[in-house]
Write a structure and sequence with these properties.
disordered N terminus; 157 residues; seven-stranded antiparallel β-sheet; mainly beta
Length: 157
């Protein structure tokens, strides 16, 4: 027997398993899914969606969010991060990255950037020149013991 529970943004299926030779009833959650909403923001942040929505981060811990963005220069200028890691995948376009540790890079389509914000990181990530960039960015919560680590950035091409 399966029970389906629907809400506005998700559907969860639960299966009830009964063992007739014992007095045990198990309830297991099979899957939960939702449909991301793509926001048409206009220039310069052309389109954005949360594939893992931040309001459900407790369910996905250590994953905080997964965002998909299409943007031009002027969207993600200098801003801080603290206590988590980011993994950015460039789907299309070129991403210019500069940070408070002196790092500078231009990532091309197919490149991946890992950043440990640790106790404090400031950086900017912008579309390079006049590119329209398409990115996926995953935020990962750091365990409490690692939240005060040093900032680190690695790029995989």
């Amino acid at each position: 027997m399966a029970i389906q529970i629907k809400s506005r943004n998700s559907t969860t299926f639960y299966k009830k398993k009964e063992f007739h030779d014992t007095n045990i009833t198990l309830h297991t959650r099979n899957k939960s899914f939702w449909y991301p909403t793509y926001n048409q923001n206009g220039y310069p942040h052309v389109q954005q969606a949360f594939l893992l929505p931040p309001e459900r981060q407790q369910e996905f811990d250590p994953f905080i969010l997964l965002a998909e963005d299409w943007f031009k220069r002027g969207v993600f200028g200098d801003h801080p991060h603290r206590g988590f890691q980011t993994v950015t995948y460039v789907v299309d376009g070129r991403l210019e990255h500069i940070d408070n540790a002196g790092g500078y890079s231009i990532l091309d389509a197919g490149d991946i950037q890992y950043m440990n914000a640790g106790w404090a990181a400031r950086h900017a990530e912008e579309a390079y020149e006049d590119d329209l960039i398409h990115t996926l960015q995953l935020w990962l919560n750091l365990p409490k013991a690692l939240k005060n680590t040093e900032q680190a950035i690695k790029i995989f091409v």
